[in-house]
Every structure is written in structure tokens, then in C-alpha cells.
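Priority: medium. Attachment 1 of 2:
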């Protein structure tokens, strides 16, 4: 009985455990089923989203391709219309060309006829001259050629006058604009160079020391320094006179040191002079170096730098050479910029155009040749060398930069008060100008006026026409340019007038 109960209990337990496991498995399966359904739903929604995105992209791409296709179609239509218009223009040009060819052929035929007619007329004229005037064939030909030449000269003069006037008006406007730009954008200083320096003395007894026993000190000073020392009755000063600014500056500094030191004798004079010369050599190099730094023109050969600084102690017609050089360089830079040239090259050419003047007082000769040789030796730009030659008419300017330097040089030299002139050279120049004018056929009188900057030429109205007067002024101007050295410009004014005089009696 007990065994039956135990078996029953065990059987019940087994059934219970089986039932529990069955329930547990069933619940677990339901949970997994729900989880699988959820995942499937998520995947389905993602697939639908991706499908919609793909459809959207495809639609967008189709629209883009369609727009691009429409654009290409429009471009093709435009290009087609362009080709059609060009074809029409080409046909019109071909028609014009054909008409021009016909006109040229017609004119050639007319010219041939006119040439034949001209030859016929010449032959008739020759025959008449031979019969009527008893001319030989050669004399008749010479006479006709002379008349044709006179008529051609008058016609050429008229054409030259017309186009020269147009060119002058256009050129004058452009030149005035460039000069106005250059002069308004640059304002330079000017101070006339003197021929003497003054050295102040602490007392009049220093004059005796400077003269020395039997004049030994002053003789040594004048011989060593190359200047004239004037000791007169003016109290407290002595005068140092020399046309050479460099020597005069050295002499002034030497005397200032000697006066300050108080020891004045030949040995001391030589010692101080040697020291001051070395100081000035260094000073001139530094002066040139500072100019190049300011203008931004490095590199440049050391000799040219030193000579550039030395130009501070050189004057031409009372105008300081360095001040003139800097003025020309800056004016040329502005002009070259206005004309589309190289500003730096124009600045360099303007700075070196008178470099030869730094050596002319010591070496002699033409500053143009000396300057060109210096720049050539130190491998300067060909435009710089051309500007050196061209600014005095030795060569024609071969570039915008050279032309700018020439114009700036004349502008700097010609402005009022810039230079002084020696009376003899002025008189000689004026005489040369008048002789050039009076040597021409048909000129009755010529007068140089306005300090040699204008020449009035009176011509015989019977022998010369208005058009020939224009040619005459041009020829005189060309000869003056080739033969005479002058600052600025000279106006040639040819005057032709006809007077009719009668007397009432």
C-alpha cells in the first residue's frame, strides 16, 4: 500500500514537473515568436524606407539629367543660331570683298588710262616746247619735272600740315597729361649752388696763423686743397673759393678742424687733409648707399654707389647734380608708369643718366661718354645706357623708359630758376640759332627772343606759301636739335605776311 502511495506521489511529481516544463517551453516560445515578429517588422520598415530613398534618388537623378539635357539642347540651339549669324556675316563680308575687288580693278583700269593719258599729254607738251620754245628734249623734260616737283611739294606740304596738326593736338593732350601727373606727384627742393664757402674764426689773429710766416701756411693750403683762400678785411671770416664743390667742401672741413685745434703748420695741414679725404670718401659712399636704400634700387656696383654720393658735390649751371638726378629719376618713374613702362627701370636710368658728371671735373671729357662707359663696364641694363646717350641727343630713345628720362631731364633743367648760364655760352647759342634760321632760302630776318627759347623767322611771302612755311619751321627745328645744345625747348615761329601798299597823291 505504501509502495502504491509512493508510486502515485512520484507519478504526480513527474506529471507536475512535466507540466511545468511544458508550460515554461510554451511561454518561452511565445516570447521568441513575439521578438521575431518585432524584428521582422523593423526590418520591413527599414526596407520600405530604403526603397523610398532609392526611388527619391532615382527621381532626382532623372530630373537632373532632364535639366542637363534641356540645357544642352538650348546651348546647341544658341550655337546653331550663332553659326547661322556668322555665316550670314561671312557672306556679307565676301560680298563686300567682291565689291572691293571690282572697285580696285576698276580703279586700276582708270589709273592705267590716266597714266596713258598723262604720258600722251607729256609727249604733246614736249613736242610743243620743242616747236614753240625751241627746247631740246632733255630741257623740256627737266622743265616739266621741275614744275611737277613744285606742285607735288605744295601738295605734300598740305598733307603734312594737316596730319601733323592732328598728331600735335593728340600728342600735346597726352604729353600735358603725363607732365601734369609727373609734376603734381613730385615736389622737389631747389637751392642754387654758391661758388664760395665761409669759415668763421674765433678771432682775427687766426687769420695770421692761417697765412703763416711768409705765407707758408696759406700756400700749403691752396696747393694741397686746390682752392683759393681769400683773407680780406671782413672781420671773423675767411673765404674759400672754387668751382669744384667737392674740393671746396674738403677745404672747408680742413680749415674748421685746424681753427678748432689751433695748431696750424704745413705738417699738420697735410695730416688733417689726409684724414678729411678718407672721411669724405666714406661719407660719399654712405650718401649713395642711403639713396639706393630709399629708392629700393639695390644691388649696384660699389664704384657707381660712391660716384652717386659724390654728385652731391657737383653743380651744373648752378643746379646741384645730385638734386637734379633725383628729380629726373622720380619724374621719369611717374612718366613711365603713365605710359605703361617699367617704373623701376625708369627710376634707375634717371638716377644714372648724369653719373659721368661725378668724374668730369677730374678727368675731363664728355659726361655722356664717361657715364655710358662706366655703366657698360658694370653691366647696367641696356636701357640705362641708351638713356645716358639719348638725354643729350647722341642716340634716339629706344624704349618708354629712355624717353621718360629725356623728358624728365628737360623738365628739371628748364623750370624757372633751376639753372644759371654763363653769358658767353648763352650768346653763342643764340647766335647759332639765328644763323641756322637765316641760312634757309626765302628767310628775310630771324630774331632769337625770350632768352633764346623762341625764334621768330620772317619769310618772303612771294617766294614761300603757307604750307612751305610749315615745312620750313619743321626743318629749322630739326637742324637746331641736331646742332645746338640747349635746356628745355625752343619755339620756332615762322611768320609770313603779305602787305599791299598804295599812296594817295
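Attachment 2 of 2:
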Amino acid at each position: 500500500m505504501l509502495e502504491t502511495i509512493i508510486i502515485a506521489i512520484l507519478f504526480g511529481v513527474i506529471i507536475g514537473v512535466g507540466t511545468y516544463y511544458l508550460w515554461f517551453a510554451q511561454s518561452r516560445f511565445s516570447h521568441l515568436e513575439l521578438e521575431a515578429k518585432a524584428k521582422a517588422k523593423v526590418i520591413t520598415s527599414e526596407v520600405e524606407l530604403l526603397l523610398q530613398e532609392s526611388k527619391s534618388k532615382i527621381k532626382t537623378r532623372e530630373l537632373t539629367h532632364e535639366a542637363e539635357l534641356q540645357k544642352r539642347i538650348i546651348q546647341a540651339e544658341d550655337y546653331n543660331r550663332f553659326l547661322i549669324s556668322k555665316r550670314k556675316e561671312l557672306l556679307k563680308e565676301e560680298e563686300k570683298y567682291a565689291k572691293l575687288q571690282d572697285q580696285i580693278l576698276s580703279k586700276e583700269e582708270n589709273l592705267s588710262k590716266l597714266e596713258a593719258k598723262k604720258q600722251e599729254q607729256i609727249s604733246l607738251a614736249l613736242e610743243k616746247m620743242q616747236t614753240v620754245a625751241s627746247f631740246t628734249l632733255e630741257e623740256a623734260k627737266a622743265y616739266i619735272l621741275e614744275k611737277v616737283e613744285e606742285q607735288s611739294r605744295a601738295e605734300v606740304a598740305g598733307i603734312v600740315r594737316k596730319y601733323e596738326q592732328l598728331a600735335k593736338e593728340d600728342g600735346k593732350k597726352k604729353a600735358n597729361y603725363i607732365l601734369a601727373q609727373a609734376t603734381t606727384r613730385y615736389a622737389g627742393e631747389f637751392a642754387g649752388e654758391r661758388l664760395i664757402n665761409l669759415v668763421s674764426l674765433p678771432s682775427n689773429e687766426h687769420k695770421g696763423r692761417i697765412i703763416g710766416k711768409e705765407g707758408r701756411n696759406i700756400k700749403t693750403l691752396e696747393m694741397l686743397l686746390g682752392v683759393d683762400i681769400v683773407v680780406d678785411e671782413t672781420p671773423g671770416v675767411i673765404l674759400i673759393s672754387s668751382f669744384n664743390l667737392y674740393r671746396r667742401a674738403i677745404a672747408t672741413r680742413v680749415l674748421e678742424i685746424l681753427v678748432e685745434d689751433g695748431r696750424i703748420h704745413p705738417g699738420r695741414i697735410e695730416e688733417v687733409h689726409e684724414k678729411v679725404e678718407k672721411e669724405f670718401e666714406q661719407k660719399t659712399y654712405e650718401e649713395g648707399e642711403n639713396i639706393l636704400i630709399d629708392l629700393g634700387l639695390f644691388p649696384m656696383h660699389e664704384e657707381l654707389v660712391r660716384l652717386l654720393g659724390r654728385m652731391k658735390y657737383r653743380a651744373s649751371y648752378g643746379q646741384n647734380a645730385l638734386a637734379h638726378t633725383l628729380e629726373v629719376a622720380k619724374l621719369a618713374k611717374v612718366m613711365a608708369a603713365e605710359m605703361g613702362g617699367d617704373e623701376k627701370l625708369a627710376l634707375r636710368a634717371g638716377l644714372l643718366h648724369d653719373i659721368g658728371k661725378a668724374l668730369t671735373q677730374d678727368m675731363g671729357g664728355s659726361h655722356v661718354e664717361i657715364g655710358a662707359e662706366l655703366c657698360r663696364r658694370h653691366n647696367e641694363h641696356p636701357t640705362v645706357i641708351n638713356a645716358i646717350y639719348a638725354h643729350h641727343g647722341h642716340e634716339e630713345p629706344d624704349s618708354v623708359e629712355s624717353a621718360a628720362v629725356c623728358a624728365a631731364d628737360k623738365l628739371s633743367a628748364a623750370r624757372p630758376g633751376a639753372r644759371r648760364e654763363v653769358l658767353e655760352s648763352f650768346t653763342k647759342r643764340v647766335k647759332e640759332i639765328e644763323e641756322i634760321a637765316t641760312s634757309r632760302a626765302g628767310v628775310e630776318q630771324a630774331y632769337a627772343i625770350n632768352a633764346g627759347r623762341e625764334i621768330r623767322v620772317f619769310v618772303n611771302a612771294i617766294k614761300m606759301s603757307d604750307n612751305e612755311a610749315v615745312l620750313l619751321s619743321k626743318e629749322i627745328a630739326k637742324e637746331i636739335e641736331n646742332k645746338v645744345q640747349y635746356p628745355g625747348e625752343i619755339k620756332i615761329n615762322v611768320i609770313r605776311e603779305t602787305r599791299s601798299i598804295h599812296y594817295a597823291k
